[in-house]
Amino acid sequence: MPPKDPHRQMEKLRKQVLGCRECPLHQQRNMAVFGEGPYESQIMVIGEGPGAKEDELGRPFVGRAGRLLDEMLEEQDLSRDRNVFIANIVKCRPPKNRVPHKKEIETCFPYLEEQISLVDPSFMILLGATAMKAYWGSLKEKVGDVRGRWITEGHRHIMPTYHPAAVFRNRSYRQYIEEDLKTIAGKYRELVGG
Ligand code: SF4
């Protein structure tokens, strides 16, 4: 059998997501948001779902919270242009930015699982409670209880932290996210060198 080509598989998956109508969220979307960043990134950031700007442009984290995320990643010399792949739990915008329903998450989750399998990152950052709970279905803790801690699954190091949108409700969260990104960046550099 010929070796798998992750780029080709990712492009195939992208097309599938852009045309997906598997859950009711497709009904009001403008564009599905697949995710972006180099496919060989060692770091993957996972958020909840697209907002209005993301739905309009078909790109993840491009609104106010996205700009803040980019800024905080850049402080650690990380970016979606170079070394971070960004995706969401659900690929279509829930109406009025509500939290996606359990069934919608379950229906969309296999796309994320395939993205994780193709990117195969060594580090994953779960932004906010929805991402954290969708990834670990049974987790009861709040983000504040587990942020800043590594959870290791095989070769992968996973860290939950606050969603950047939380900073607009409480500015002190920025410091926590920055601390967590610094920890992640430090471990990442240990791995890749530099
Ligand atoms: S949210 Fe996911 S499962 Fe639902 S329509 Fe969009 S891509 Fe398909």
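^ iron/sulfur cluster complex. The pocket of iron/sulfur cluster is lined by residues 17, 20-23, 25-26, 32, 90-92, 104, 107-108 (CB under 6 Å). The two ends are 37 Å apart (CA to CA).
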